[in-house]
Design goal:
2 domains; six-stranded antiparallel β-barrel; 16 strands; Thrombin, subunit H; mainly beta
Length: 216
């Protein structure tokens, strides 16, 4: 039986989700002897630098395959909560995805809530915020919650506070929704990546980017 890569690619295009893909590169600040990155480097995150990126698409694998990875990954000590198995069509550049590449699901959103301490001078989100839903802090007696004006998120991830803002040296919380972002943890273990020389869709494990520091 001959498998048809074009048919797989068409199907992935029909059920796929739009994503923003950024290829990863090792930062030159990484020391080849210690395998540690230079902590003073501001260009990388844990020794990785990402390209500007491009919009493309991929397909989420079925529930059966997701469960198979959870079972295998747990037994091998590799599974993390939030892991997702995805199929990469062979007719898009994303097919060449490698370890630590970043993928943002631009048509989806997920909740977040982050508390910022009194020693934090400024806020700069490391993810794409789609909506800020609440800004609040506690009064000096730590008895009452005070809601502030919703801040504006700037294009660089910084925020501009509104008319009612947290007083100086006051911890506050921002709650809202963000674009889910993952990194490529590994290829999904399987017997074949090609069939008779024909490029069939690749399967990869995507892991929430919040866990990136553990993997690198």
């Amino acid at each position: 039986m001959k498998l048809n890569p074009d048919a797989f690619n068409r199907f992935a295009g029909e059920i796929g989700q739009r994503v923003f893909w950024r290829r990863a590169h090792e930062c030159p600040s990484r020391n080849p002897d210690s395998n540690q990155h230079n902590s003073a480097c501001r260009a990388c995150v844990n020794g990785r630098i990402w390209e500007t990126g491009e919009c493309t698409h991929l397909a989420l694998s079925g529930q059966k395959l997701q469960q198979a990875w959870a079972s295998y990954g747990q037994s091998a000590g590799l599974f993390e909560k939030g892991d997702v198995v995805c199929s990469l069509p062979s007719d898009v550049p994303l097919y060449g995805m490698g370890e630590y590449d970043r993928v943002a699901f631009i048509d989806s959103s997920e909740p977040f809530s982050i508390a910022y301490g009194v020693l934090q001078q400024s806020v700069k989100f490391k993810f794409t915020v789609t909506k800020v839903e609440r800004l609040f802090w506690l009064d000096p007696t730590l008895s009452n919650v005070i809601d502030g004006t919703l801040p504006v998120v700037n294009s660089d991830g910084t925020i501009t506070f509104g008319r009612v803002a947290p007083p100086a040296n006051t911890a506050f919380t921002i709650t809202g929704r963000r674009v889910p972002e993952y990194f490529c943890f590994a290829d999904y273990p399987q017997d074949r990546a090609h069939f008779g020389g024909e490029p069939l869709p690749r399967k990869v494990i995507l892991r929430p980017f919040d866990l990136f520091s553990r993997a690198n």
